[in-house]
């Protein structure tokens, strides 16, 4: 699967999973990385993305993971944290 196609799947997944009581969310395209066959797609509030002010940052946003082989899309888990902490550029 191409990078752009995987990113679009992540955007669709994020939009579908957003709750009404959450601030508007957006993918942090500057920080998207690949690691271990996964596209690691971080996201955060639109306000944080615009300002990068840590007071606007949502602290518990686990990235969206897209399997590049099959296109599986899901949120990352605590056990997978090493994947995005050590992701290659």
From TrEMBL:
Residues 4-72 form the Immunity protein domain. Pfam families: Imm35. This is YrhB domain-containing protein. It comes from Streptomyces cinerochromogenes. The lineage of its organism: Bacteria, Bacillati, Actinomycetota, Actinomycetes, Kitasatosporales.
